[in-house]
Amino acid sequence: MFWHDLRIALRSIRQNPFIAALIVAVIAVGIGTSVVAITLYHAKAGNPIWWKNDVLFRVLIDSRPAADETDKDQPHAENPPFTLIYRDALAIYQSKIPERSVMMSYSSGNVDSQRPGSPPLRREVRATTREFFSMFDVPFRYGRGWTQAEDEGPAQVVVISSYLNDRLFGGGNNIGRSLTLNGQHFTVIGILAQWLPLPRFYDEAKDFGPPDDLFIPFRWLESVEGLAFDGFCYRTKTMLETFKALAASECVSSTGVWAELTTKRQYREYAQFLENYHRAQQQAGRFARPPNTRLASVSTWLEMNEVVGNQNKIQVVLALTFLGICVLNTLGLLLAKFMSAAPLSGIRRALGATRGDVIRQHLMEVSLLGVFAGFIGVGIAAIGLRLIRIFVLMRSAQFQGDNPDFTTISQSLSHMDGQMILTAVALSLLAGVLAGLYPAWRIGRLAPATFLKIQ
User: Which residues are paired to 215 by β-bridges?
Assistant: First the structure.
């Protein structure tokens, strides 16, 4: 029965190839557009450390001044600030409840290029504590992270990215060599393997760039002069561009804390610890708002940062709406095509075919057209994603330099995997069936005598 319906469908397509090609083209364009939008959404919606989603938590505590009219201008005023006042981050980090915890801040500084006459390299610096690497499953190509003693020293040690290792030393194992950051000498004890969490979830998570190039023990923030900070204080409306000024202030800085809580008991105790800490600071006159502490899992953290923003969602909705318009146009084309071949359907009915047989044979044809459109739509989507990849690479080269990680990132964000290909084929089949359901039913319901009299 299947092969019989397939032969009839192929014969019908050959009899009117222009309309068949037009139907395939209309559906394919809609499929290609939809797959591009869904692929970009799918790439951004991933969780880069999903296997630890339920044990890693970003610590949030509401240290803002009392609520006022400006809260109305904030899209999510109910959320605490995403970063912490330095003294609060330090006090929270010292809790012994979590299995592991990490305190971190980001900055940027000048690294000696190791080449006489060449200007220094401006690179991102992650000041953090020793368990950053084990907590976030950071892979090493050579060496290690620092120890607790080196953390507390702090020792003059640094972990660098694979990219910076290539830029400074030409690649290879360079453990034990030194580099100069803002005039301060550090010994390289670790070189990362390629590590591209997308998005960079451990920070404010909208960033789809490469990870930081340098990792130093947190306390070096106090000693390395000239590190750049995002030092605008919303509380005082002033700029605080040095760490010493930020550390002594009541301003929310770039400092954040993550905690690893492996049991429900740890989670409850730590949540209670944060609430008690907030109440104690409130009684001391520091915090003006009621307790509003959060332990945001990785997935919740990504949602709070709107990694998949409304713009991405709107793009998917618009693409699917466009596909719906294509389906409606295809419906009209199929109705015209099937009505032109209605006399042949009447002859089949007269020879014993049931209405169900006629409807099934026509649905076979639209399904076949849908499959053809799906494969062509995949090709259109591949071309569209390729153009997006080229555009991203051009922008990266213009503003971000020669880091090869940008090539990997652009490919990851515009890669159409097997799931997306299956989605394209499924959408094309669905579009074909939806477009052809009414025309097939309409032909199946017509009395054969109507056409036999004409013939």
Answer: 126, 159
Distance CA 21, CA 234 (A): 60
pLDDT value at residue 421: 78
pLDDT at 315: 80
pTM: 0.79
Tokens representing 412 are: 């990851």
Amino acid 60: pLDDT = 95
Answer whether residue 167 shows pLDDT above 80.
yes
Q: Per residue in 299-317, pLDDT tens?
A: 999 888 888 766 777 888 8
Orientation of helix 310-340 relative to helix 17-44, angle to 10°: 160
| SS3 letters across the chain | CHHHHHHHHHHHHHHCHHHHHHHHHHHHHHHHHHHHHHHHHHHHCCCCCHHHCCCEEEEEECCCCCCCHHHHHCCCCCCCCCCEEHHHHHHHHCCCCCCEEEEEEEEEEEECCCCCCCCCEEEEEEEECCCHHHHCCCCEEEECCCCHHHHHCCCCEEEECHHHHHHHHCCCCCCCCEEEECCEEEEEEEEECCCCCCCCCCCCCCCCCCCCCEEEEHHHHHCCCCCECCCEECCCCEECCCHHHHHHCCCEEEEEEEEECCCHHHHHHHHHHHHHHHHHHHHCCCCCCCCCEEEEEHHHHHHHCCCCCHHHHHHHHHHHHHHHHHHHHHHHHHHHHHHHCHHHHHHHHHCCCCHHHHHHHHHHHHHHHHHHHHHHHHHHHHHHHHHHHHHHHHHHHHHCCCCCHHHHHHHHHCCCCHHHHHHHHHHHHHHHHHHHHHHHHHHHHCCHHHHHHHC
pLDDT in tens, 180-228: 998 889 999 999 998 888 888 998 755 777 888 999 999 898 888 777 7
pLDDT for the residue 359: 65
In single-letter form, the type of residue at position 77 comes to A
Is the distance from CB of 199 to CB of 44 less than 8 angstroms?
yes
| Type of residue numbered 43 | A
Nearest alpha-carbon partner for 242 in 223, 257, 218: 223
% the chain with pLDDT above 70:
78
